[in-house]
Amino acid sequence: MAKVKTTFFCQNCGTQYSKWQGQCTACKEWNIIAEELIQKPEKSDWKTPEKASTKRLSKPLLINEIDTAQEARLNTQDHEFNRVLGGGLVPGSLTLLGGEPGIGKSTLLLQIALKLPYKTLYVSGEESQKQIKMRAERINPNSSNCYILTETKTQNIFRQIEELEPDIVVVDSIQTLHSDYIESSSGSISQIKECTTELIKFAKETATPVILIGHITKDGNIAGPKILEHMVDTVLQFEGDRNHVFRILRANKNRFGSTNELGIYEMQGSGLREVTNPSEILISEKDEALSGNAIAATLEGMRPLMIEVQALVSTAVYGTPQRSATGFNAKRLNMLLAVLEKRAGFRLGAKDVFLNITGGITVDDPAIDLAVVAAILSSNEDEALQSDFCFAAEVGLSGEIRPVQRVEQRILEAEKLGFSTIFVSKYNKISLKNTVIKIQLISKIEDLVDFIV
Ligand code: TYD
Ligand code: MG
């Protein structure tokens, strides 16, 4: 084997070093120097040279002449996954799936691999073939297309790929892979970069889609260099609260589709179930209306989602009142409380306020504000809201009810689920006709107080 040449580069300013050191002397950044391959041996290609295709020279083409028909996507048989990808897997694309440990990344991809009608190779560096088989038995025991390989060395993986010629490759996880050409251990910046480069080359040359699982760090970023996210075509994030059954799949980056789409799954004993109508599950069943509950018509990506907000307002036992929010921004809660205090005359300063979004999901949509305010008012008065009311508006600092985007879609979802009244901002332009649901337009927080207290 020809000699491999590596050297060390600062990932920030690009200064070259002959050996590793903790701090870059040029830009003073710490822990930024990583080993990189500068000259690969001839065999570093993912294929052995005799089998490697002769390089095609690429020529400039008029944009009108570029044929997109060949971009036919592979249907993964999983509607939620397809939707998030923008319609299926694009041949030759690299998809990175990130998420917290134990959230269900391996389960999701194994489940998809088992369902696929194509020849699939599931490479695992994390679990043994037996372990994977045991998991597969829980999910879908009859699959005739899925091959399992437990291997971490990329050169060996490519050897098996050449033999098997799979249509789709899944790698669990990129952090366990290592390439012979780099000295450093698996999971280091330079290993991740090199292995990903080799996989990209393989994917592009053979038009095989590759899906990688990526670990995330404490602060929620994908472990390894940021450049990893630039290298791949699609970055998916699998998230949820491990103690709840719902899992949300979203695209953080997608070269072949929008990043607005969202996939929702429910973790069951037999794998992940696609949730096609999430609103029905997120709203808890109850016989009588309880105080402190309000329903928000939110949008997650492009999908309307009815979410239940629960608030508990009680007299503060200690000097400083407690404020706690699960699934909702605590700063925003404090802001809404201040608005309520000022505009609606509620003396919340002496009260503890707890807020919870049911289902263990986190909501960013500002349209949930009005439901939060309604839930707090309802708990404060110990007066239940009518259970067929729902809310969709943002609340401003001066207590004004502000319009939200795509309000009509929210109204239609609320109507579909049988709500009688939806509270929205007066400033929203609504051109819906013949709706059964009553659209209650309000402009100030005081208007809401009149309605519900
Ligand atoms: P896993 O896919 O191993 O997570 P990751 O690869 O993201 O680390 O998922 C692990 C969790 O999922 C585990 O705690 C058990 C649970 N699980 C189920 O509830 N039902 C199932 O059918 C399977 C396979 C796993
Ligand atoms: Mg795993």
TrEMBL record:
Keywords: ATP-binding, DNA damage, DNA repair, DNA-binding, Hydrolase, Metal-binding, Nucleotide-binding, Stress response, Zinc, Zinc-finger. A motif (RadA KNRFG motif) lies at residues 253-257. ATP binds at G99, E100, P101, G102, I103, G104, K105, S106. The keyword ATP-binding applies. Residues 70-216 form the RecA family profile domain. The keyword NADP does not apply. Residues 352-453 are annotated as: Lon-protease-like. Signal peptide: none annotated. Belongs to the RecA family. RadA subfamily. The middle region has homology to RecA with ATPase motifs including the RadA KNRFG motif, while the C-terminus is homologous to Lon protease. Plays a role in repairing double-strand DNA breaks, probably involving stabilizing or processing branched DNA or blocked replication forks. PANTHER family: DNA REPAIR PROTEIN RADA, DNA REPAIR PROTEIN RADA-LIKE PROTEIN. This is DNA repair protein RadA. It comes from Meridianimaribacter flavus. The gene is radA.
